[in-house]
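Tutorial handout. Part one gives the primary structure; part two gives the three-dimensional structure as tokens.
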Amino acid sequence: MSRWHIIRRSLLAVFLVLLPVLAAWICIGCGRYEISLADTVRILLAGPDSDTFPQVLRAVVFKVRLPRIILALFVGAGLSVAGTSFQSLFTNPLATPDTLGVASGASFGAALAMLMHGGLVATQFVALLFGLLGCAITYAIGRHQGRSSVVMIVLAGMVIGALFQAFVSLVKYVADPQDQLPAITYWLMGSLAGASLHTLSLGLPFIVIGVLVILALRWRLNILSLSEDEARSMGVNISALRLVVIVASSMITASCVSMCGSVGWIGLLVPHAARMLVGSDNRSVVPVSISLGATFLLVIDTLARAASAAEVPISILTAVIGAPFFVILLKRTGGSWT
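Part two.
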């Protein structure tokens, strides 16, 4: 490896570490109540209980924007890592975090909780529970004669996802059209408006654990494209590895959906952008996806809350911005992702 190549990779690593931090610093001051970059730093250093700044300003920073920014960073990073792992696991460039029906299960759980007049924390807990339940059902169906098959797991995920989507439609059909139906519909379109330190404490541990597991196993993700015999010859139990990756990725996805609803395109678009930067080696793709995914969703959420008086659901912006960008990626790569 040449000296210039080492310097280039080191500079890229530093840039990717600083990128989410810089984006968070800028975005925390953006909104209908604008705060300068210098004041942002002074407010953060002073803390929420300091009397140096007005109470309204401290409330905007610490109670409204900071929880949303933390949530956006973790959800963006988590969905990107989950998408990267699923694309490697299934050797499919179109795989997304909802391939196994986890997001559909979590969406049904949240809709059911709102139908039963559950609060924000109850909605988050039930959504997380049904998301993990959807993954468990999918994996159980995908096992045949004591062994798990990628094709069976994917097909089972499609079936379970469609089934939970039908359940979501049923909940929307019986919901009160004046009160419950608008709330369910808006939640399903994705929003980070409900972020608070209390809700973050329930969902973030699952994202952190799942990301750390995949990050630790990122070099093994390259082996998932091999056959079981080839992997066994390298001393890797591919069935156990597959199960760990599925559980970690599903835990991330279920937690993300439970906190902010359905957020599309992140898990599909960001891994491809990461591969354009560093190639197809998952040892590099996973860390790069964490940085790009966190920054991308943070920018999207800032646009959603600051672009107009009425907040725009983030799934609309991710599709409007993500779809053209994905077309550009396809044109530049010719559809190749390896």
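Part three, for discussion. The first helix runs from residue 3 to 27. The first strand starts at residue 143 and ends at 144.
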